[in-house]
Amino acid sequence: MRFDTEPGDKVAVPWKLVHAGTQTYEPEVSPQSGSAPAAFGNLDVRELKVNGAVLRIVLLKGKSGYDPDALTGWIQQTTRNLLHAYGRFPNPQFSVFIIPVVDRSRNSDAVIFGRVVRDGGEAVELLVNPASTIERLTRDWTATHEFSHLMLPYVARDERWISEGFAQYYQNVLLARAGQYTPQYAWQKLFEGFERGRHSMPNASPDEAAASDSRNARMKVYWSGAAIALLADVELRQHSGSAVSLDTVLGNFQLCCLPSNRTWSGAELFAKLDTLIAEPIFSPLYERYADTSGFPDVDGLLQELGVRVRDSTVALSDEAALAAIRRQIMTPRDPGEY
Ligand SMILES: [Zn+2]
Question: Sorting pLDDT into bands at 50, 70 and 90, what band is 107?
Fold first, then answer.
């Protein structure tokens, strides 16, 4: 695809650059929808090199002023958050589009909306309130959530409890590892999320909740998947004396299978993850919970981890059997351990 533009105007598309002089790009597959983010004109385009990955940051300037250095710093921080999973970026080449949106009705949110777009290339799109300070942007979890999505391929929409759940789990884990949440706060957020998930469409299974596409089912979709991610993480650590965790499995999955430009089914993804470990853990969790009504059984597990709840407030106990695993989950590793 070749672009002819006015001098000074820039092109930003999530495709492979073939020739800069003629602005020629090669989409890996033809875009299937109008969703592929493409921006033309008065843009600020920057490249960020992160542990072997090249991240292209595309800032749409808009009419309202903002500080491009601050926004770049925030994306850099989000990138560092993601490196706390397995030390590498899931996609060695992808774009982040930052779109300023003045939203006076919801000015409490620094990031108004975010999504991953996988159409002709992987990109994250973030709608940002340009009046936000860098501190408020950094405290907002949306960007870390969207970046966490990149650790899994696109999973069929009627099973999106998997992609949403894993991103929901990781956003809390990564923000704790990065020091932006205390461990207590991260467990508090997980506990509150599990409660919301439990009360959302209580009789539906994760599959039914995702397939229903109902607003009432949203919390079931997001938090049932997060509960399954926690169950898998703890089981992996328990079976391996903490040599293996969800981080290491997803790291190995990245080496074999990411980035992927096709849709995966939940059963296929979980079966693939099981090929990366000694004994299957993922497929049994899938078979047990994907189509079972109610909410995955995490109460006993939280007890064992020493996550104690009184009057809806979490306190952490080091007396619990799995307290060491609880601490590991929220603690950053040394860079040499990846
Ligand atoms: Zn999401």
Answer: low
